[in-house]
Each structure stands twice: as structure tokens, then as C-alpha cells.
Request: fold
Amino acid sequence: MECNDTKCPIHGNLKTHGYSIEGTVVSDKLKTTVIVEHGYTTYLQKYKRSLRKNSRIAAHNPPCMGAKLGDQVEITGTRRLSKTKSFVVTKVVNKK
Reply:
């Protein structure tokens, strides 16, 4: 598949930062955006317990990646692409 997307980190001219997050695509209803859910744990000092939390992050999905609902993806930080998008899909780890 030919990728003419200028916001693609591989075929376009978009620079990415050093941090990356792995998560699951929970929504792919938008044209070039996916919502990625990332699970993490945080420690509550008051109760001396760990707490599981989820974070939902909007990421740009270039046509060459083609991430779909349920896929495990790796997203990397980049400059602000829109009001809610500051990440881009760089790798599809596991297809559903």
C-alpha cells in the first residue's frame, strides 16, 4: 500500500520523540485516528496498595499502519497534530 500521508513517521516528514507506549485499540471510528487504551498501575501511599488504571489516548493512524479495533499497537509521542492528538501509531505489534 502506498502511503502519501505527510504525518506518517516512516514515509512522511513527522519527527517523533523518545517515549513510546504500548496499548490496545478500543475505537477506530474516525478516518485517521484511533483511540488506544493503555493500562498502568499507581501506588496509593495512604492505603499502601496498588491501583490499576486505564488511560485512553487519541493517536494518528497512517494508512500504511492500518490499525483496527482490538489490535495491540505501539504509539510514540510527537508534536501536537490536532486538539486531542499528540501521538502517532508507529508499529502494529499484534493483529487481531
Notes: The radius of gyration is 15 Å. The beta strands are 16-27, 33-44, 49-60, 72-78, 87-94. Residues 58 and 84 are 6 Å apart (CA to CA). The chain has a mean pLDDT of 92.
